[in-house]
Design goal:
The complex is a heterodimer of chains A (about 140) and B (about 130). Chain A is built from three helices and four strands; from the N terminus they run αβαβββα. Chain B is mainly alpha-helical and about 130 residues long. Helices cover about 50% and strands about 5% of the residues of chain B. Chain B is built from four helices and four strands; from the N terminus they run H-H-E-H-E-E-E-H. In chain B, helix 2 packs antiparallel against helix 3 and helix 2 packs antiparallel against helix 4. The chains are: A alpha+beta (about 140), B mainly alpha (about 130). At the A-B interface, helix 1, strand 1 and helix 3 of A face helix 2, strand 2 and helix 4 of B.
Chain lengths: ~140, ~130
Amino acid sequence: MSSLKVFDIAGSGMNAENLRQNLVASNIANANSVSSSIDQVYKSRQPVFATEMNNIMQKNQAAAGVNVLGVVENQAPPVVEYAPNHPMADASGYIYKPNVNSIEEMANMMSASRAYQNNVDVLNTAKTMILDTLKLGQ
Amino acid sequence: MSIDFNSALDIHPQALVLREKRGEVLAANLANADTPDYKARDLDFKAVFNQNLSGSSVSMERTNPGHMAARNTVLGADLKYRNPQQPSLDGNTVEGHIEQAKFAENAVQYEASLSMLKNQFSGLMTAIKGQ
């Protein structure tokens, strides 16, 4: 039944926003994970969204969902702090903090949560529409 | 005498199909609200409806199996791109509030078509029972 495509589309949107929300949680949770080496320090992670173009091309359908292409690490330099008394300090007395921007992450979290809610609303409305259609003629 | 459902039910079944397709397109817009470079699209209901009603849809002829079918069409009509009020930096033209409003509007119109259809059916039932 073709009308069930709405569920796929809204589902893909929910899936993508859910991943984004998870990454925000991971970033915020690791915001204070201090490391003693610049290579091992946690880097902020962000999802990359893309429209499901291959579906459009193959099945000749007009509406398309969201595809998560992958997760990229933010390449901004980590915060370097001189703290020779810190237990994690390296030989020259520096510690490395993640490049997580808490304010950015909070804004990201709000955006992801609103977008998720939008998709849930779409799903609920589509469900009502289809259930009403099934009751046609009764 | 037989009942021809196409004429008995008027235009409402076609309207319902169109509403459903438009709902899909709007759902895709909302799902892609955060996808960079995604362009919000919509169905020109009036144009598609007139085209389907008059049956005078003009489409490209495919004379070779290698020809690709026209893309991004719904029921033979092209999807239109929405002009954003406030375009965003990442090239995405989805505006959540506008899409939500359109989606709600479309859902109400779907329900309206549906209740019209219900009325047509109950009219037919009355005619059949003769009571």
